[in-house]
């Protein structure tokens, strides 16, 4: 199943989702021309999820059906505004130490239970616990308690016939950066056995590529650990090689966090944001100019780069060749609005539909 995430469309309130985002979803559907109902990866802020009344939620579910769409998953990662002037580290807050994160996720569970088609497993993607520098071992009991509260809600939902997986989304700079980190974390967490199938991963191709991960090894580790791959998010990262580092500056913008990893020989080292990596250039020496840089900046997956920069869309092709068959595929290129002007497609709807077209040969 292939969808796209509506976090590419700015919307903070339920009114904005219903009046501004949904018409764009239908435009995308019209361009993609799916065979059968069109799956939509819906992003709702905490404000939108709390603000929708039971009547409005039921009406929206019926409108989805009439429009030939359905909701298999919700994006519950960013709690607040995701298209403000500066998002950066605030995208992870409140994190899993906070009851606010529990309440937000509970609202999403309530809605997805209503909208999820019968006999379909749904998912809610969420932050990978929190930003690494903010979390200490002393926080882990509260994290475990909060996760358990949500998983118990999901157990109740599954018993009522609506199975939903909470999908942690590893990201550079967070407590869980990789699939391997998630495996180790869940081993330490020691969840009750009956709840383990309800906690899975949202495998983000851009995040994994930035960290030079091996998707075959990642999926093998997850399978061995019994961790479900609920969703795979599809977008490319930026690749900068050799003497093109000056081009990296065009991706240094103030809204989102652009974690950067430099590969030198057999090792890698990372920076919390692209600006920090660029400021380090004088201290890197000749080696820093010759090795590969990967930058967390979600590029349209059809973008092959140019003479100045490359992309990691080959990593997406590798992921698709070894993906678990049950995983939902979701295009997620939320950074369209901050793409450098000379490489940003003129039409958002055209850009999304071209991403669907790029993927078809791999499906």
Quick structural summary:
The chain is of the alpha/beta class. The protein has twelve helices and 13 strands.
CA radius of gyration is 20 Å
CATH superfamily: Divalent-metal-dependent TIM barrel enzymes
What's the quaternary structure here? single chain
- For the record, what CATH class applies? Alpha Beta
As a percent range, the share of strand residues is 15-25%
Please list the strands of the largest sheet in the order they lie side by side: 1-13-7-6-5-4-3-2
Low-confidence stretches: none
What is the general shape?
globular
- Tally of DSSP helical segments: 12
Estimated helix fraction: 25-40%
What structural class should be given to the helix and strand makeup? alpha/beta
CATH topology: TIM Barrel
* Mean pLDDT over the residues: 95
Roughly how many Å apart are the termini? 9 Å
Number of domains: 1
Your description of this structure?
The protein has 363 residues and is α/β, with parallel strands linked by helices. It has helices at residues 14-32, 46-51, 54-66, 99-115, 140-159, 179-189, 205-210, 215-225, 274-279, 281-290, 313-322, 348-359; strands at 2-4, 38-43, 69-75, 122-126, 164-168, 199-204, 229-234, 236-240, 260-264, 267-271, 292-299, 310-311, 328-331. It contains 12 helices and 13 strands. Strand 3 (69-75), helix 4 (99-115) and strand 4 form a beta-alpha-beta unit. The radius of gyration is 20 Å and the shape is globular. The chain starts with a strand and ends with a helix.
């Amino acid at each position: 199943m292939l969808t796209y995430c509506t976090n590419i469309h700015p919307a903070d309130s339920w009114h904005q989702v219903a009046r501004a985002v949904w018409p764009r979803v239908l435009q995308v559907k019209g361009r993609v021309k799916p065979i059968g109902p069109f799956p939509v990866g819906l992003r709702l802020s905490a404000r939108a999820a709390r603000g929708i009344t039971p009547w409005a939620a039921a009406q929206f579910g019926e409108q989805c059906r009439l429009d030939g769409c359905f909701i298999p998953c919700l994006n519950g990662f960013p709690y607040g505004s995701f298209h403000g002037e500066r998002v950066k580290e605030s995208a992870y807050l409140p994190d899993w130490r906070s009851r606010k994160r529990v309440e937000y996720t509970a609202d999403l569970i309530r809605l997805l239970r209503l909208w999820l088609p019968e006999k379909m497993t749904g998912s809610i993607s969420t932050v990978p616990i929190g930003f690494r520098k903010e979390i200490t071992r002393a926080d882990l009991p509260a994290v475990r308690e909060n996760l358990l509260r949500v998983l118990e809600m999901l157990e109740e939902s599954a018993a009522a016939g609506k199975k939903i997986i909470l999908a942690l989304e590893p990201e550079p700079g967070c407590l869980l950066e990789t699939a391997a980190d998630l495996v180790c974390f869940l081993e330490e967490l020691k969840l009750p056995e009956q709840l383990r199938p309800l906690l899975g991963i949202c495998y983000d191709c851009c995040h994994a590529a930035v960290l030079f991960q091996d998707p075959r090894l990642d999926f093998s580790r997850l399978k061995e650990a019994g961790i479900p791959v609920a969703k795979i998010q599809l977008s490319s990262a930026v690749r900068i090689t050799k003497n093109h580092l000056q081009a990296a500056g065009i991706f240094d913008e103030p809204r989102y966090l652009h974690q950067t990893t430099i590969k030198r020989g057999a090792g890698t080292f990372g920076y919390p944001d692209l600006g920090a990596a660029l400021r380090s250039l004088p201290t890197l020496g000749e080696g820093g100019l010759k090795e590969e840089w990967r930058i967390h900046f979600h590029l349209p997956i059809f973008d092959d780069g140019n003479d100045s920069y490359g992309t990691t869309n080959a990593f997406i092709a590798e992921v698709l060749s070894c993906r678990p068959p049950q995983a939902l595929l979701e295009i997620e290129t939320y950074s369209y609005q901050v793409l450098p002007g000379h490489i940003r497609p003129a039409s958002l709807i055209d850009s999304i539909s071209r991403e669907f077209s790029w993927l078809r040969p791999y499906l």
